[in-house]
Amino acid sequence: MKKTELIFIPSPGLSHLVSTVETAKLLLQRDERLSITVLLMKLPNDNLIDNYIEKFSSNSNTNSRLKFINLPNQEISPVSTTFLFDFIDNQKDSIREIVSNFLKTPSESKLGGLVLDMFCTEFIEIASEFDLPSYVFFTSGACTLGLFSHLVELKYEQNQDLTKYKDSDVELSIPCFSVPVPVKVLPALFVEESPMSKIFLNYFKRIQETKGIMVNTFHELEPFAIEFLSNQNKCPKVYPVGPILSSSSDDEHSTHQGYDEIKKWLDEQPENSVIFLCFGSRGSFEEAQVKEIASALEKSGQRFLWSLRKPGAKGMMHVPTEYEDFREVLPEGFLERTEGIGKVIGWAPQVAVLSHPSIGGFVSHCGWNSTLESVWFGVPIATFPLFAEQQLNAFELVKELGMAEAIRIDYRKDMRGEKPSEIVGSEEIEAAIRRLMVEEGGSRVRNKVKEMKERSRMALMKGGSSYNAQSVFIEDVIKNVS
User: Global pTM?
Assistant: First the structure.
């Protein structure tokens, strides 16, 4: 049986890689005619990817039709604001060589195309050189894809200067949303006058050149946006194939030091009683904000598990580190006063925690992976976005879908550390926690999330919306090379 090979190219970083690998696994399980090679880009000193691949490869259930190729390391200093995208673009020659060698080497598989991360659309030109189709794997949701497409249209077709929306109170009518969208929740990069704005818009403009877009969402979660995108002639074919997330059994952090202690503590708590605070791999706060969060938790009286991490050095590429002693940043006596009802930890095994029955709420930065995980496990969110498209996700959850309570929707942290961050007061945080965990309004949100939990699982079952979308994608790939 002649196989079809796909080459997946995720952007650097563990979150995009995990989503890519999980997508590849799903497709391979669905059809034995497919094989997949994933090209790995690793930023300097990024050991997380090595650890993830090593653990994944050592799993006895690893699919033999899924292979990995490391792209060459680059000695580039992360000083420029465009560092990440320069790093990606510098891989063109290596990727071109890999594709060329594949086509020259006799094989049982026929190369069916490149599946590119949303930040790797520059490699469309490599696919075109070899007369291969290209596809995009969009790691965010359909509303975000629709918004990006709309901003591209405003910029390149209507010749609008998007910087006019910076610090504006305007609300935009965006076709993939059923409600007006305040420009305050747009990713800041799109409305800034900077090289990054042009780079981002060009990346998303090029999506139009592809054969199709796999989106990490499911029809029941974002029906309005998916139906709009599916009916647009200018948009490539959309395949809502999610929710794609790392399962708890594969969660690479579930065996990290301290997990047994966390699980033991959670096991001792009543069902749905604990609110979990976690802000992603790059989420951290300065001391003043930490104290406001601590005060809110203490006053709320709610049980809590708080992943508290120390801000790294200033700059876009620096990630948080661990505290040696939480007392250096928490209010005096906080740990003693909350002993028994709260637990402060460092890095959290998020999937394993969210899947625990004692977790009843989630204070989250609203990254898309975290959003899908909250839906999958039926844990409602209180929104505390930090950067990138997280404000847009928070807006979608609260206003478009009615599936979250807002601490803030438009809170934004300057990830470069050039401006002091706004401080959200303890009263505001406490009120949102109470709404989510105690008050009647929270029960409405909780019921919606619980309903979507069931729908998320049905979407991936045989005959479900995402199962069918995966089938259509596979058939389209094979048809495009036959």
Answer: 0.93
The pLDDT of residue 254 is above 50: no
Query: Which of 116-125, 137-146, 383-392, 431-440 is least confident?
Result: 431-440
What are the residues whose beta carbons fall under 8 Å from the beta carbon of 20, sequence distance 6 or more?
8, 10, 38, 117, 137, 139
Q: What is the pLDDT of residues 292-333, one digit of tens each?
A: 999 999 999 999 999 999 988 765 556 788 999 999 999 999
Q: Quick one: tokens of 78?
A: 């992360």
Rounded (10°) angle between helices 368-376 and 14-30: 50
Tokens of 286: 């300065």
Which of 16, 219, 356, 365 is flagged as catalytic?
Answer: 16
Average pLDDT over residues 233-242: 92
Write out 416-442 in H/E/C secondary structure: CCCCCCCCCCHHHHHHHHHHHHCCHHH
Cβ burial of 71 (10 Å; 0-12, 13-18, 19+) is: middle
- Measured between alpha carbons, how far is 361 from 359 in angstroms, rounded to an integer? 6
Between 397 and 418, the more confident residue is 397
What structural domains does the chain harbor?
Answer: 3-247+464-481 (3.40.50.2000), 259-456 (3.40.50.2000)
Distances in Å between the alpha carbon of 220 and those of 50, 293, 351, 401?
A: 35, 34, 22, 11
Element housing 405 (H / E):
strand 404-406
277 beta partners = 306, 363
Q: Is 117 marked active-site?
A: yes
Question: In 10 A of CB 399, how many CB atoms?
Answer: 18
The residues, ordered by sequence, that sit 6+ positions from 461 with a Cβ below 8 Å of its Cβ are 467
Say if residue 369's pLDDT is above 90: yes
Residue-level length of the chain: 482
Beta bridge partners of 149: none
Is residue 219 among the annotated active site residues?
Answer: no
- Closest to 90 in 3D by CA, of 44, 65, 137, 123: 123
Q: Sheet of 404-406: strands edge to edge?
A: 342-345, 303-307, 274-278, 359-364, 381-383, 404-406
Catalytic residue among 31, 50, 117, 161: 117
- Give Cα separations from 53 to 38, 67, 128, 236, 349 (angstroms): 11, 10, 30, 32, 17
